[in-house]
Amino acid sequence: MIAKRTAAFSFRRSRQITYSASAPQAPPSTNNLRRNYSVTAPTSSSAAIDESSSSSPPKVQPSNPPQNMYMWGTSKKGTIPMNLLQQDAASSGGMFSGDEKIVDHPMRLNLEESALKIFLFGDEEEGVSANNDVSLDKLYCGASGTAMVLNDGRCFVMGSNKNGELGIGSEKKETSKPIHIPLPDPVAKASLGPNFSALLTTTGDLYTFGYGGSRLNGMGCLGQGNMDSHPTPTLVNSLIEDGCYASDVHCGEYSMTVLTTEGEVLTCGSGSYGRLGNLETIDQLYLEPVELMGAEDVTQIAGGFAFNLALNSGGIIHAWGRNNEGQLGTGMGLAADMYAMESLPRPIEGNLEGRTVTRIAAGHTHAAAVTSDGALFTWGMNYTHEPKLETTLLHTKIVDVACGQNYSLALDEEGRVYSMGKGKTGVLGLASTKASAYPILVEGIPEEEKVVSMNCGWAHVACATELK
C-alpha cells in the first residue's frame, strides 16, 4: 500500500525548477532557486547550515584538512583504499580471505598530494596539473562503499555498486578505483546505504541514487515519487518545491530519513516495521514529515538498518522503527520478538531519564548516546533493550560516538578512541578479530595525535587526527 504525497505545506515556499533539453553530465545547479547556504558536516550524524546575506552562488570555504587519516576493518570491493595505506605504519600486514582484506589495526593513509592525485586520477591530466591542488577533507564509510570528499567539495566513491548505490551508473557492479561523481555544487555529506545512497550539497540540496524499491520490499526510498531506480545522482525535486533545505540524511535498508534546516524530520520509502514514524505501515513515495516530531526542535538524526533516532534541542531521544534486537532502547518486556516495532516516535527513558543527551549514533541493530556529563550509553544487539551505562569509561569524559554493524567507537575529550562489540571484521582496531563486551582503548594511533572525528561503516572505519 502506498501513501500519496500531501499538498505542499502552507508554511513552506513553493518552488519550481526546470531543466534544459540538453542536460549536462552533472545535474543542473539550483543556486538560482536557493538561498546562499554553507553546510558543514560535522563528525557525527548532525550537520549545521549557516545562512549568508549574499544571494550569489555559494563559495566553498577553505577547509582545514586533518593532519592524518587512519582506516581499519575489512576492505571488500575496495572500501579501504589499500594503495594509500602506509605499510610502514602498520604492525602487521593484515589477513586475506577471498577478495577481502582484514586490517585489524589503524593504518595511516598517505595524504601527500602527489600520492592522492595518482590514486584519484591516475595519469589523467586533471589529476596531475600543478595548478589543481588536491587534499582529502572527509571520508564517509557506508554499508558496502566509501566516499572521499576533497577540500573543494568533489566526491569520489568506491566499493560495491550492486544496486547502483555508488551512483556511477549501472555498468560497473563494483570498483576499487575511486570514481568521481559530478554534481553542480560541492558535497557536504554522503550517506551510503546497503541498497541506495544520498549526497547532501553545501546548498542544502539532496541527490539520491540506487535501488528505488519494489512492491515486495517497499517503494519510494529515493524520494523521487516512484519506485524507479536511478543509477546516477538525481535531485530530490520535491524538497525544492516545498522550500526545504536538507541539513542531514540517513539511508537505511529501504527507507530514508532527512533533517531539514528548520529542525523538521522527513521520511520516505518502505513503511514496514513502522520505520517511517507515522503510525501507518504503508510506503511513502515522497519525503513527508514525521508528524509527532513536528513540535520538536530536532538537532540530530541517526538510523540503522530499519530504525531511526532523533535528538531534540532539550537532549531527549525519540526512536521508532524495528525493535527486534532492542535497538530502540525502549524496552521489550520479557522476551525479544522478531516483529517488535514502534510505529510512532517514542522517547527513550530508562537510565537516560533526567539526563541531557548531546550525541547519538546508530548501527545496524544497536545504538548509543553521549550525555552532557560525558557518559556513554549503549543498547541493542540483543544485549540490552534499554540504555546501559558503560561504567568502564567513567574515568574519562566521552564527547562523541559512532556505530557500525555490531560495534561502536567512543571518543573522549583527550582525543582517544575506545572500541567495543564484535571484532571478526577487524573493526575494533585492537590488532585482533576477537569481540569485546566492554570498551577498550585503540592503541594504534600515535600518542602525539588526537582523533577529532570518526566515521563507521558496516565493516570499516575512518578516523581523522591532528597534532595535540
Largest sheet: 5 strands, mixed
Strand order of the largest sheet: 1-20-19-18-17
Tally the beta strands: 34
Structural class: mainly beta
Let me know the average pLDDT: 86
Q: Helical amount among residues, as a percent range? A: under 10%
If you compute it from the alpha carbons, what radius of gyration comes out, rounded to the nearest whole angstrom? 21 Å
Which range does the strand content fall in? 35-45%
**Poorly predicted regions:** 6-24, 31-62, 89-93, 127-131
Shape annotation: globular
- N→C terminal distance: 55 Å
DSSP helical segment count: 3
Architecture blueprint of SSEs:
Elements: E1 2-3, E2 37-40, E3 48-51, E4 68-76, E5 95-97, E6 100-108, H1 113-121, H2 125-128, E7 136-141, E8 145-150, E9 155-160, E10 174-181, E11 187-192, E12 196-201, E13 206-210, E14 213-214, E15 218-219, E16 230-235, H3 237-241, E17 246-251, E18 255-260, E19 265-269, E20 283-289, E21 298-303, E22 307-312, E23 317-322, E24 341-347, E25 357-362, E26 366-371, E27 376-380, E28 384-389, E29 398-403, E30 407-412, E31 417-421, E32 436-441, E33 449-456, E34 460-467
Parallel strand pairs: 1-20
Antiparallel strand pairs: 2-3, 4-6, 4-34, 5-6, 7-8, 8-9, 9-10, 11-12, 12-13, 13-16, 14-15, 17-18, 18-19, 19-20, 21-22, 22-23, 23-24, 25-26, 26-27, 27-28, 29-30, 30-31, 31-32, 33-34
